[in-house]
Amino acid sequence: MRARRLRTGLKGWGGVGAMALACVLAVLAALLLPAVHSHSGGGGGTDGGGGHGVAHGSQARAAEECTDPEKQTLAPSGDDGPTIDAIRAREGEKRKLIVGVDQNSYRWGYRDPNSGGDAELEGFDIDLAHRIAKDVLGDEDAVQFKAIPTDQRIPAIQDGRVDMVVRTMTINCDRMKDVAFSAPYFRTGQQVLAPKSSKITGYDPSLADTEICTAAGSTALSTLEQDRTDGTLPEGVDLRTTVPNQLDCLVRLQLGEVDAVVTDGALAASQAAQDPTVELKGDAFTTEYYGVAMKKDADDLVRRVNRVLEQWRADGAEGWQHSYDRWLSGTMDDAAKSLPPPPRYLRKG
User: Fold this and answer.
1) HSE value, Cβ hemisphere, 13 Å, CA-based, for 68
2) How far apart (Å, rounded) are the C-alpha atoms in residues 305 and 292?
């Protein structure tokens, strides 16, 4: 029988301090950035929600015959188009790139609670958003960040509340029916996070009869649900605990309300860095790629972002490797495992 009580490991400084940090970040998520709420006629509360709409261009056609979603994107281009023109046409203080981000994912998109009340968002995804803003508007600070819960990423794009989402968002075939993706900028995979004292050893039979937390609308949840349908999920696994944001799963784990968390290994590593009483269990059991998500008909913006990504990969001084070294090298062991292979495009243009 699983005990639902505060784990003894949290009594030490590391666990208490980590819980405090997690809770502070969760509160900041509600207070410090404009919340993006569910649209009444839109996504239905899940990342895959909303109507598929009208198919646009090669990427939409590829989504209908999707096998390798990370390869289904448009070739880079510096040409302007209607989407970029509309962004540049915003006047005064509104002339900014509006980007949906997370603000409570440690080292990806977060506010450091030790930096004071005016702490700016920082992290790997935030670096990329600044880079895109500089290319599109000539000013890396010409960006407005909006906090987007995991299950609201696609509705926020479809409803026009953001121009793009840069938020550890996995490229997959289902999502390509609703949004367009850039080339991949990070490689990861689903992984199990659990207390160090746990008998759980990974995504294996040791998960039997446990309760797992996932974020609503996440690939972790959809993967586990599919495995349950396929009969490959360990017997007795309870998937009923879902939360709006991944950090909420860490808090549930700290409180002893769940036995494990399943999420992208990149995020799990950051959560383990926040709380020394938990650790990653076993290897990643999927291979996934993060991409920048945009509206389906925003071909010019997709191409522009892909050009930015190519430059970011090649720029040693302020590029991908620099951001990795600054934000992620302390929580992840090998940049070579995280850098996606050179992208393949649908067509030149």
Assistant:
1) 9
2) 8
